[in-house]
Amino acid sequence: MSKKKAKKPQRAASRPASGGWTFLSNHSHVLICLSRQPDMRLREVAEAVGITERAVQKIVRELESAGVITRRRDGRRNHYTIHRNQPLRHPVEAHRTVAALLELVDAEP
Question: Nearest to residue 86, comparing CAs of 109, 63, 62, 54?
Fold first, then answer.
């Protein structure tokens, strides 16, 4: 009888190799994905961010609880609305909004 190995989430192409760090948190990465594609499946978000689907589900619940996103059921899919006027949560950046973060990330160089 052969044992099946548990699948590890695949590392996204843009994710740093060798456990490198990034400037933004996974919460930011999930928010950016849902901002760019509001109907994105959480499985697809997980693949893009490079974390498990369960971790994405937890982050989405936390973003909902904080009033940053709203989830609306649309048939068999979810649609996510980003509340861009919400302030960022850390005291260092609380003077900025979610919109400012998303604009920074999506700004052309």
Answer: 63
Half-sphere exposure of 26 (CA within 13 A, CB side): 18
Domain boundaries, the chain: 26-106
pLDDT of residue 14: 54
pTM for this prediction: 0.82
Q: Which residues contact 5 (CB under 8 A, 6 or more apart)?
A: none
CATH of domain 26-106: 1.10.10.10
Closest by Cα among 89, 99, 38 to 62: 89
Rounded to 10 degrees, what is the CA torsion of 18, 20, 25, 28? Answer: -80
Average confidence (pLDDT) over 44-56: 97
